[in-house]
Write a structure and sequence with these properties.
Helix content is 41%, strand content 19%. The chain has helices spanning 14-30, 46-49, 69-80, 93-96, 113-123, 139-155, 163-166, 173-182, 199-211, 257-292, 326-339, 358-368, 381-386, and strands at residues 5-11, 38-42, 56-61, 84-89, 107-108, 131-136, 158-161, 186-191, 215-219, 234-236, 298-299, 305-308, 314-319, 344-351, 374-377. Helix 1 packs across helix 5 (113-123).
Length: 387
């Protein structure tokens, strides 16, 4: 395998490095990318192992009182190569991180290993940096908790959709709600006692299943767990998770910090698996369309599809979750050029257009006339092979 995702580890915190390596391999498994694609490079091996032409992410987990000239040399070189450097510290950024990295955003070891793993995956562009979440809830039962979660997740760098805060006046409410749901990484569903009796909540649940969007279910203490026991991403809340007893006035109740931390961990750990699941759905439908038209296509290890033409060139099709945007086009072209030695005939982003608003679909059609990277709706999969 020629292409590697390079993680360069600088510093002396071996316990953290070993734990992160294990967590990252799980992340690659969740994304269904073979773990051989991840290359861990220690500081003593950088000169021989590092390749400037491939994706790289750097973690510094040391102390400025112990930093060596060699470590500074490596960090300076990585900064010149425009690779992201993430400082990881114990308690105090200013006391532990060298001045050379003072302008970088850092995280603490206590910020959660899963969160750090996802930052690395985002740096490799395997998870999108714009972390979108949709909150589904019944207003009469959990609006106060929904707003609390909205504020908490926004503080933790999620772009959160909640109907009372996220739709501008004058917008077509229901169309915009489905549009925003389509483009989210996950749905955080607040399953209160009467949740499933609400027509709107049931519609959101049905739409999520139709779009294969992953759902993290928060189950209220008085909610019948049997209705949701088959779900993979769920947390059963109990009285101690709230600052008020369940049967007091919960319209003013709040979740405790410990519960919020567990919810954040569940959301973080679910993102990669949901992305892979939605990509699988697109890959299966696209491959079936190719087979129906007697066209051979191949799924590559980085989760894109290739069709080899008679002239030896490749057509590349990239499954795109959510709504394709210009950044998808840019990143896709950059990644394919790094990975492939063969000449590329074309690159196309394939996506499911269900519930995406017409104005955006028209915009994508317009972009297809001008951009080198094209987009292809799921409803048009057969047409690309029948020409």
């Amino acid at each position: 395998m020629k292409y590697k995702y390079q993680l360069i580890l600088i510093g002396e915190n071996e316990e953290f490095f070993k734990a992160l390596e294990i967590e990252l391999k799980k992340g690659f498994d969740d994304l269904k990318i073979i773990s051989d694609a991840l290359k861990i490079i220690r500081e003593q091996d950088v000169d021989n192992e590092y390749s400037g032409g491939q994706a790289a992410f750097v973690i510094y987990a040391g102390h400025k009182n112990n930093i060596t000239g060699r470590q500074l040399e490596i960090l300076e070189k990585q900064k010149l190569d425009a690779n992201i450097i993430l400082p990881v510290y114990n308690k105090s950024f200013t006391e532990e991180i060298p001045d050379f990295l003072s302008n970088q955003n850092g995280v603490t070891y206590n910020d959660n290993l899963i969160k750090i793993k996802n930052i690395v995956l985002e740096g490799f562009e395997l998870l999108r940096k714009n972390r979108k979440l949709f909150i589904s809830y019944k207003r009469s039962e959990s609006s106060n908790i929904a707003i609390q979660l909205y504020e908490f997740l926004e503080r933790n760098n999620f772009d959160v959709f909640i109907d009372t805060h996220s739709i501008n006046k004058g917008e077509e409410f229901q169309e915009e709600l489905w549009h925003r749901m389509t483009d989210c990484d996950l749905i955080l569903m607040l399953n209160t006692k009467e949740f499933l009796k609400s027509d709107w909540c049931k519609q959101e649940l049905d739409k999520a299943h139709l779009k294969r969007i992953g759902i993290v279910h928060l189950l209220w203490p008085d909610c019948d767990f049997e209705d949701f026991s088959h779900l993979g991403y769920s947390k059963k809340l109990n009285d101690k998770d709230f600052d008020k007893p369940l049967f007091s006035d919960l319209t003013k109740g709040r979740l405790k910090e410990s519960a919020l931390s567990e919810i954040l961990n569940l959301v973080e750990s679910s993102r990669a698996r949901n992305l892979a699941s939605r990509q699988d759905w697109l890959i299966t439908d696209f491959t079936q369309a190719a087979n129906d038209n007697n066209i051979e296509v191949n799924l590559q290890y980085s989760r894109y599809i290739t069709q080899k033409l008679d002239n030896g060139k490749l057509k590349v099709f990239i499954p795109t979750v959510g709504i394709p945007q210009s950044i998808n086009c840019h990143n896709s072209q950059k990644l394919i050029k790094q990975i492939e030695d063969k000449e590329i005939e074309s690159i196309t982003l394939i996506f499911d257009e269900l519930s995406i608003r017409n104005y955006w679909l028209e915009h994508l059609d317009w972009l297809n006339e001008y951009l080198e990277i094209k987009t292809l709706k799921k409803s048009q999969f057969n047409t690309v092979f029948s020409k």
